[in-house]
Amino acid sequence: MLTKKKILITGVAGFIGSNLLEKFIEQDNTIVGLDNFSTGKPENIEPFLKSDHFTFIEGDIRNLEDCKKAVEGVDIIFHQAALGSVPRSINDPITSNAVNVSGFLNLLSVAKDEGVKRFIYAASSSTYGDHPDLPKEEDKIGKPLSPYAVTKYVNELYADVFSKTYGIETIGLRYFNVFGKRQDPFGAYAAVIPKFVISLLNGESPTINGDGETSRDFTYIDNVVHANEQAAITENQEAVNQVYNVAYGERISLNTLFALIQEFLGEFDENIQKIQPNYGPERTGDVRHSLASIEKANKLMGYNPQFNVRKGLENASKWYHDNLNIKSHS
């Protein structure tokens, strides 16, 4: 268990960052959080602001001084701050690069100067690009299919060079389609699961890109929190200065995904069971199928995810139903 450490979480007001905050604050850690609220939400951290164990800094990883302030005296960094989304990077590659590459380098450089013990960062399954093999294994990658994928691969290259050159311990976690509580269902770049959920809660037909047989290894947030904790506490020297897939190790199609979400939300409103999806064009830059091998993470750092997609969706659907004011953003 990760306990009694001083840790920095960047992107702390975001979906994954706020879930890490919630977990680690309960375990008697002292936490510094950094966020500029470009995609994160104040309400995600609001319950924790009164805690003596949490200090929030509103700042930007593109600003070196903000990074220096945040990193001071920290043992471990969980770097989640980034501009996600393949479509966003296609529309605005320059900003995606500024945040995801320059911001990453700022934080990594400051971490090295401050003597931070371990730097754990959000990598991405998009790094696999056009490599055809399934399941995805960490050492076999193809050419990136989007500016976003380029930025996340560059993160891995910088982390590798910094670990070899300066001795800082780095661990990259290639997230596969994470979902769960506090994931934003609104805005142009919302992920597929919360988009489906909000459409169904509104009594509307969601749009499935393509024929719906595109498949993904959807990963419940609690699995991701577990992976970050294992990365922080592992004492296996073979486990550091590596990248790992973080997933459940099963893939399901978008059509099956829709049916599962419909089943769980239908328990709250039977009219949801009658809604049929619309089908639209495929999304530019998307891969057809994705499935992770989680063997390396299991073997080297004891990653053992407990939530398959069905169990995760059951939890997530209840959270969305209980927490989303459906009409407030319509």
TrEMBL record:
Domain (NAD-dependent epimerase/dehydratase): residue spans on this chain: 7-247
Signal peptide: none
Domain of life: Bacteria
Gene3D superfamilies xrefs: NAD(P)-binding Rossmann-like Domain, UDP-galactose 4-epimerase, domain 1
Protein family (similarity comment): Belongs to the NAD(P)-dependent epimerase/dehydratase family.
Protein name per UniProt: SDR family oxidoreductase
Organism in which the protein naturally occurs: Flammeovirga aprica JL-4
